Amino acid sequence: MSLHPDVRLNLARSNLLLIDDNEQALEVLASIFRGFGVHRQVKCGSAADAQGVLRSREIDLIVCDTVMPDMDGYSFVRWLRREGPDEARFAPVIMLTGHAARSTIESSRDCGANFIVSKPFTPEVLLQRIYWVAKDERSMVRSDTYVGPDRRFRNTGPPLGVKGRRKDDLSAHIGTAKDPNMDQDEIDNLLKPQRAAL
Amino acid sequence: MSDAEIFKVRNRLANHVSEPGGMTAGMAGSRAARELAAQQGKSYEAIGEALETLEWLCQDKAAPMDSVYDLSTTVLDIAGLFDDKQLCRAAYSLCELADKLRTRDAVDWAAIKVHVNGMRLIWNTPEAAREGLNAMVEGLWSLTEHLSIDDSEAEAPAA
Q1: Single pTM value for the model
Q2: A52 contacts chain B (CB < 8 A)
Q3: Residue A111 forms part of a structural domain
Q4: Which pLDDT tens digit goes with each residue over B43-93?
Q5: Which of A27, A72, A157, B147 has the most C-beta neighbours closer than 10 Å?
Q6: B34 lies within 8 A of chain A by CB
Q7: Phi and psi of A3, rounded to 5°?
């Protein structure tokens, strides 16, 4: 499932921060985002470098690998949400995950990222997650144990222009009713037991 | 414990995305695919280097499991950006294996070698002919799962 090809989005003025300790993976990621039209990119090979960038630049979206030496992606997002610079503290974060090691499962759930995308993925899937993050209207939650987007999802269906994964998914934007309301007799008639021919 | 605080924040990305101009998702996908294709050669070289190092580690049999884990995540990280499902599944199985082994402070070079050979086979097989390797990849997963059975037995309390 991916975005409808006709959905239009403009990423030309977005400031992107990419974090991955693998130099080649970082290059590939940057090229995907170039394809999406993101010209303002800052690439960091470590979470420590990224911390420095966030203190000095305005960032609109952070895309971060999970497995990194010293400070991993989860710890970085935990730092960002709790101690990050005010301007960047609640910036949207998409985590890219390869393998979920046993020791990191809990931290991945609680780190406070907006979305986690599992590898392998296609550019279309990544673009869809960016769109979702941009349209994400969830509030932020700050508590003793968690800081990040509200994880209590209300099912309002997939975003406008996106086909849902479930067969009964309906977009929240279904429009106003066209037919007049049914009167009570019609409703009663619908609920009345009927003789069925078997 | 204090009460949770719930609040709205300004999402600058949302403002940018909705600005006039830009491109359609279809166009962005095609452009990204072209950019990816340009990166494929260098990326596959990097995967090849990681596989070579893993093969050498299997011969040497002295490296810590952390090294095996790091190299298998390297393969997974790069192959994952190219949507290389089979290589990713094989690399994920090796990550899982190395992670379990290091958690138990154990080594199993035979199982690691089977994985590395499997990854090399996938690597050397053209994309169109890879469907025949599905059973082999499932075999790698069985091997890693078998180790988790041993793991649960090991953790069972003594009678």
Answers
A1: 0.80
A2: no
A3: yes
A4: 999 999 999 999 999 999 999 999 999 999 999 999 999 989 999 999 999
A5: A72
A6: yes
A7: -60, 150
- Looking at the complex, report in whole angstroms how far the Cα of residue B46 sits from the nearest Cα belonging to chain A: 7
Torsion angle of the four alpha carbons A7, A13, A17, A22, in this order, in degrees rounded to the nearest 10 = 70
A1 is a domain residue: no
| ipTM of this complex prediction, to 2 decimal places | 0.84
Element (H, E) at A111: none
Edge-first strand listing for the sheet containing A15-19: A40-44, A15-19, A61-65, A93-97, A115-118
* Yes or no, beta carbons of A92 and B33 under 8 Å apart: no
Question: What does the pLDDT look like over A40-95, one tens digit per residue?
Answer: 999 999 999 999 999 999 999 999 998 888 899 999 999 999 999 999 999 999 99
Question: What's the gap in Å between the CA of B158 and the closest CA on chain A?
Answer: 24
Residues A112 and A179: their CA atoms lie apart, in Å, by 44
Inform me whether the C-beta atom of residue A61 falls under 8 Å from chain B C-beta atoms.
yes
Strand partners, A115: A94
Per the structure, the count of domains in chain A is 1
- Is A92 inside a domain boundary? yes
The domain that contains A122 carries what CATH number?
3.40.50.2300
| Residue B102 contacts A where some CB pair is shorter than 8 Å | no
Q: Which amino acid is at B31?
A: R
Residue A19 with chain B: CB contacts under 8 Å: none
Q: Does A152 touch chain B (CB under 8 A)?
A: no
Tell whether A6 is covered by a domain: no
Q: What is the domain range of residue A72?
A: 15-149
CA B126/CA B9 separation, integer angstroms: 48
Instruction: Give the C-alpha separation, A72 to A174, whole Å.
Output: 42
Are B29 and A12 an interchain contact pair (Cβ–Cβ within 8 Å)? no
